[in-house]
Design a protein that fits this description.
The chain is an alpha+beta fold. The protein has 6 helices and 7 strands; from the N terminus they run ααβαβαβαββββα. The protein has helices at 3-9, 23-34, 53-60, 97-114, 127-133, 181-184; strands at 45-50, 83-89, 117-122, 141-150, 155-159, 167-168, 174-178. The strands form 2 sheets. It has a 4-stranded antiparallel sheet, sandwiched between helices. A 3-stranded mixed sheet has the order 5-7-6, with no helix packed on it. β6 and β7 (174-178) form a beta hairpin. α2 packs across α4. The protein is globular and about 45 Å long. The protein starts with a helix and ends in a 6-residue tail after the last helix. The structure holds flavin mononucleotide (FMN). Flavin mononucleotide binds next to β3.
């Protein structure tokens, strides 16, 4: 896929086929993250790949899903992520680490999208529990978790009409409002 097509086809995916992802692909996603831009090239990030079923379940239990979907929802047992990449920060005194982590996360999700793999970036995490589960040292900070798997849901963009909350329709298709180009873009004048 062309880079632009990959960017516009990416949506957050929260339901996944229970089909394994090759470890080589997960390593490719981390490699894409590793090579992302970094403020002052300090590179404070590390990556934790999880693809063992028992560990995936433990990671899953620390996450919160799709807060706008009511009643409270999370993926069923047969649609949970097949793997995770956790973005870690080994120097949280670096004041730009969140930006570095965002670029790294975007490299991961776009590389995954290009391979036909869906993803969701999650930041609402029980970090204490996740740190215990993954034996992460106390001085290493958990920034985000990227859930991965072959897609088992459809998500489409809608024009923003005064509300930003995504919703699911009766066919279980996710609809994600995005602000319109004309409303947020200024060309040569504000
Ligand atoms: C910083 C950040 C944190 C997020 N945290 C969560 C989360 O904890 N749980 C979740 O289900 N989605 C999470 N998301 C996904 C957003 O809900 C999603 O990006 C947004 O609704 C727009 O949908 P789209 O990704 O399909 O464009 C997060 C996204 C970002 C950028």
């Amino acid at each position: 896929m062309d880079v632009y097509d990959t960017i516009i086809s990416r949506r957050s995916i929260r339901r996944f086929q229970q089909k394994p992802i090759k470890l080589e692909l997960l390593k490719k996603f981390v490699n894409a993250a590793r090579l992302a831009q970094s403020a002052a090239n300090l590179q404070p990030l590390e990556y934790y790949i999880v693809d063992k079923a028992n560990l995936c379940l433990k990671v899953f239990e620390t996450l919160s899903w799709a807060a706008y979907i009511k009643p409270k929802w999370s993926p069923n047992e047969n649609e949970r992520p097949i793997a995770y990449i956790i973005i870690l920060v080994n120097d949280s005194s670096n004041k730009w680490y969140q930006r570095d982590a965002s670029f790294a996360a975007q490299n991961i999700v776009l590389t995954a999208e290009g391979e036909g793999i869906g993803s969701c970036v999650l930041c609402k995490i029980d970090k204490e529990k996740l740190g215990d589960v993954l034996n992460i040292p106390n001085d290493v900070f958990i920034d985000s978790v990227i859930a991965l798997g072959y897609k088992d849901e459809k998500s489409v963009v809608e024009d923003y009409k005064g509300f930003i909350k995504y919703w699911r329709d009766e066919k279980e298709i996710m609809h994600v409002p995005k602000r319109k180009f004309k409303e947020i873009t200024h060309i040569n004048k504000y």
